[in-house]
Design a protein that fits this description.
CATH topology: Amino acid/polyamine transporter I
CATH superfamily: Amino acid/polyamine transporter I
Number of helices: 20
Order of helices and strands: HHHHHHHHHHHHHHHHHHHH
Strand content: under 5%
Helix content: over 70%
CATH class: Mainly Alpha
Radius of gyration: 22 Å
Number of strands: 0
Length: about 450
């Protein structure tokens, strides 16, 4: 039994848009403004992050069309740098990358729901876990229901955000002089540090590659989905941040606590706008959780298929042909993080790892090109310059994050390193299984006549 190729370019682009535009854009702009206290530099940081994300997406497009298998960078790191490196990327995805982001988004979802259902604030963990379970149930039941839910939520999300920007500029109260504001100098190290939350907010531009094994005509549809999905996200992020600056000067934006979207909506459209943006936020968060429920389990499925994760995770549902156990496992761990309240800490500790592994995956392109003599349905635009710039920027961001913020970065390194003995256990078990199979296989008799 194999995964079925039922997704088109629009479906895959919707996964990217839903995966990327989630809780990050609600909370990270003030962090960026604090590190980059000049309006135009603030906007330039988001443009630079978008350009890097697009360059990475095009490099992933080449990697994915050559190896259109489930798992994303796990597959590329395995081919270029070996299974341990690949496993550590998948381990981080399970422990924090996907599961932590799902838990955090579900918790924020419960917060926004409490605007309309006050009881949700008293039972936020129950609401968050119920949402996680509901999304897992939808996506276990097949690509058809999952695709329908994802496409509808992505369309609603993009429409709502575009309308918000248009209304904000047309009838909102703001000032173009805010774009000239500056409250301090911008240093190279603080700018690089600001790129960490920016790139974290762009995280998910590679989401289509996780489901590459389920995309029809991947040679055509994967590059198209990656380009379209990433371009839409860049446009929305730049427009939203321009609107933020139109309403608030850079120092006011840096001082915002909580969701900046709520503050901007109240300033633009009045007190009732908070309820409107609450609905938008609920849709956005639900879409993001839906996309991560699709993408993450494909990584664990690929790992289990290679015998470096729990074997049942490689099992496909006999009726729906989905990695049901991988989906359920991610939902359970995300729920544990919700109840324990540790999701935010895990994300803070391992945020740089998302940047690190994407940089290593793009660097894999150079390694694989050197020894892969295969046809390439798609070649990276601007090779070798654009992937080299992307990989170099990612490594610079990681080094700067470790230097400037060593405590959480050090904790993140320890979390990643904890995967090494776990990998050793899986690898030992796989070797033992192979040895048993070899002993059980009879040696062919030799005809000595």
């Amino acid at each position: 039994m194999t995964l079925a190729r039922r997704l088109g370019a629009f479906d895959a682009a919707a996964i990217i848009i839903s995966n990327v535009i989630g809780g990050g854009i609600l909370f990270t702009p003030p962090q960026v403004a604090a590190n980059v206290p000049r309006a135009w530099w603030f906007l330039a940081t988001w443009v630079a992050g978008g350009a890097l994300a697009f360059a990475g997406a095009m490099a992933y497009a080449e990697l994915a069309t050559v190896r259109p298998r489930a798992g994303g960078e796990y597959v590329y790191l395995d081919a270029a740098f070996g299974r341990l490196t690949a496993f550590l990327s998948g381990w981080t995805s399970f422990v924090a990358g996907f599961s932590g982001a799902i838990a955090a988004s579900a918790t924020v979802f419960a917060f926004y729901l409490s605007r309309f259902v006050p009881a949700a604030s008293r039972h936020s963990s129950i609401v968050a876990v119920a949402l996680i379970a509901a999304m897992a149930w939808v996506h276990i039941r097949g690509l058809g229901p999952g695709r329908a839910v994802g496409n509808v939520l992505a369309t609603l999300k993009v429409t709502a955000l575009v309308l918000f920007v248009v209304l904000g500029i047309a009838i909102g109260r703001g000032s173009v002089t805010n774009f000239q504001a500056t409250t301090g100098p911008v240093h190279a190290t603080t700018w690089l540090l600001a790129l960490v939350p920016v790139m974290f907010t762009y995280t998910g531009w590679n989401a289509a590659t996780y489901v590459a094994e389920e995309i029809r005509d991947p040679s055509r549809n994967l590059p198209l989905a990656l380009a379209l999905g990433t371009a839409v996200v860049i446009a929305i992020y730049v427009l939203l941040n321009a609107l933020y600056l139109y309403v608030l000067p850079i120092d006011g934006l840096a001082a915002v606590k909580g969701s900046v979207l709520d503050v901007i909506a109240d300033r633009l459209l009045g007190a009732r706008a908070g309820d409107i943006m609450g609905v938008v936020s609920l849709i956005s968060l639900a879409a993001s959780i839906s996309a991560m429920t699709i993408a993450g389990p494909r990584v664990y499925y690929a790992m289990a298929r290679d015998r470096v994760f729990f074997a049942p995770a490689a099992t496909l549902h006999p009726r729906y042909h989905t990695p049901a156990i991988s989906i359920a496992a991610q939902a359970v761990w995300s729920s544990v993080l919700v109840v324990s309240g540790s999701a935010d800490a895990l994300i803070r500790y391992t945020g740089f790892a998302v940047v690190l592994f994407s940089g290593v995956a793009v660097a894999a392109l150079f390694v694989l090109r050197s020894h892969d003599q295969v046809a390439r349905p798609f070649t990276t635009w601007g090779y070798p310059v654009t992937p080299a710039v992307f990989a170099g920027a990612m490594f610079a961001i990681v080094v700067n994050a470790v230097y400037r913020d060593p405590v959480p970065s050090g904790a993140g390194i320890l979390i990643i390193a904890a995967g090494i003995p776990v990998y050793g256990l899986f690898a030992l078990r796989a070797r033992s299984a192979r040895a048993i199979n070899d002993r059980a296989t009879p040696t062919p008799a030799v005809d000595r006549s």
